[in-house]
UniProtKB/TrEMBL annotation:
GO biological process: transmembrane transport
Keywords from the named record: Cell membrane, Membrane, Transmembrane, Transmembrane helix, Transport
One Gene Ontology cellular component: plasma membrane
UniProt-recorded name of the protein: ABC transporter permease subunit
Positions of the ABC transmembrane type-1 domain: 78-267
Organism (species): Agrobacterium vitis (Rhizobium vitis)
Membrane-spanning ranges: 80-105, 117-138, 144-164, 199-225, 245-267
Amino acid sequence: MTSIAKRSMFSRRLPVSVTIGLALALIIVLLSLLSSYIAPFDPMRMAAGPRLSAPSAAHLFGTDEFGRDLFSRVLLGGRLSLGIGLSAVVSGLVIGGLIGLIAAFGGRLVEALLLRLIDVLYSFPDTLIALALVAFLGPGIENATLAIAISLVPFYARVAYGLAAAERAKPYIDAARLAGTRSARLVRVHVMPNIVQSLIVMATLGFSSAILSAAGLSFLGLGVQPPSPEWGAILASGRNYITKAPWILIFPGLAICLTVLSFNLIGDSLRDLIDPRRKARP
């Protein structure tokens, strides 16, 4: 039975959207990781070319107001943006997942208290929570990452609680309880293997949101600080030259759009593969 199920699962063709998303994500991740070797100039080097030079063979994406090579800065900015997004999503998923599981299996009083707290936080947009936290903690990469992670906690806590509560209502949970299995072991051995796939899919979708939040904070001057070449910071520096040098906005903006698009395509398609009934819903 197991081998037949595995063969049928792997024989299923991946949707075109997954293929496109994976290809885009792989290209973006590889370019970001290899940016130190691919970048033709030091991203921090001023006067690498003429100020506000248009894209050319010497400078593929042109130069900014300080003569820095924009192609090199966008490549290194990918490493910063992806690093912030990954750290924030992993932290938010771990903390939020633990809160959701505790709420589902911690008893009625704990469940009621945690759910009310989650509902209060979930009523605020995650960007607003991140802005408030960064304004309190101060600007910087570490504080921006922490703020984005905390802003994602209510979402992942809600998702983890919903999945765990659905598993809690199944007969095998009652059988395990009757056998004397403790809640901690019940969650670790029986519940987590059944919900981890859905959590990974939601983390993929949350990654694009974290990228947007990081870029938004940097654009407002509350995230990565100049001269670090984060995508949002590059957009902020180029907004004063939107008519004179629009390429300063076009290329980092395009990088953000493609990154968000690729991970949204992956997440949506994986969610459909895990729950095919979604396609039939109106």
